[in-house]
Amino acid sequence: MRRVQVVDSHTEGEPTRVVVDGGPDLGPGTVADQAAAFRERFDWFRSAVVNEPRGSDPMVGALIVPAASARAVCGVIFFNNVGLLNACGHGTIGLGATLRHLGRIGTGRHVVETPVGEVTLEIGADGGVAIDNVPSWRFAKDVPVEFEWQGRSAVVRGDIAWGGNWFYLVSEHGQELLARNIETLTNYTWAIRMGLERAGIKGDERLGRGQVDHVELFGPATRADCQSKNFVLCPGKAYDRSPCGTGTSAKLACLHADGRLAEGLAWRQESIIGSVFEGRVRVEGGKVIPTIRGGAWITAESTLLLDEGDPFVHGIRL
Ligand code: PYC
């Protein structure tokens, strides 16, 4: 019987499961090297931790690994129901809350290494967590995508941007961003995602292989204290319950590139369930660094049991 110790949390509604003990040994190397080993040899561990029956489609796992740099508190590899993520904003906020809960870090700033670069956590005295994300930027503006919708061919236009993952960001789509429409929004964004794949539309292939695997719709905020509301489709067809940390970073980069968000000004992004991230950008050496602030709450400390006699010991893999 293999035992895996985890701490669960949610960040503005989106779950994170941090593996604190019992994870695989990924060997030496950078966090990117360890992520490659994880992808090639331990996909069973990914699905055992986050897929049903122990996990659920929206759950993001976080494996704590050794960092290459001595100034980092740890490295982290994020994963979901279909594979590894390059980075994860809500997950990094959840990791910060978890490390604080475990007494491994206190208030102040802490560097964490991801496969795509360093992220800095800031743990506030009030328990709030902010992250300084990887440099974020727009790769292509106003890219048309043809897709099948309700039996017809349709076209949308959107930007392709990097915020730690690749996003296709669409503002003109004719959909109402309301929780009661989540099923339709999921199908609509999935149809766009299929259109992106069919057309071979990619980001810069040097980062996360360039696959544009997140689709983000924007619309007017429902809350009076926010500038915008979003719906974010993740790679495994789950929608993000939070406003998506890497997705909000990609949005901030586009707003800044369009001259619509000056350095230091707050952008409050509402999620489809009404939770909020507050984002800001600063420019360093010509690069846009987004800061994303949100709340994370610990929901469980548990031991997962992996019994080799269980036909679904490695999760349900469809
Ligand atoms: O917060 O960056 C994020 C994220 C990516 C996928 C799910 N959440």
Structural account:
The radius of gyration is 19 Å and the shape is globular. The relative contact order is 0.18. Helix 3 (89-101) links the parallel strand 4 (72-79) and strand 5 (108-114). It is built from 5 helices and 16 strands. The longest helix has 17 residues, at 182-198. Strands 8-9-10-11-12-13-14-15-7-6-5-4-3-2-1-16 form a 16-stranded mixed beta sheet, sandwiched between helices. It has 318 residues and is an alpha+beta fold. Pyrrole-2-carboxylate binds at residues 14, 60, 85, 88-90, 165, 234, 240, 242, 244-246.
Give me the secondary-structure topology:
Blueprint: E1 2-11, E2 14-21, H1 31-41, H2 43-50, E3 60-65, E4 72-79, H3 89-101, E5 108-114, E6 117-123, E7 129-132, E8 137-149, E9 152-162, E10 166-170, H4 182-198, E11 214-219, E12 228-233, H5 245-257, E13 267-270, E14 276-284, E15 287-294, E16 296-306
Parallel strand pairs: 2-3, 4-5, 10-11, 12-13
Antiparallel strand pairs: 1-2, 1-16, 3-4, 5-6, 6-7, 7-15, 8-9, 9-10, 11-12, 13-14, 14-15
Pyrrole-2-carboxylate (PYC) binds next to helix 3 and helix 5.
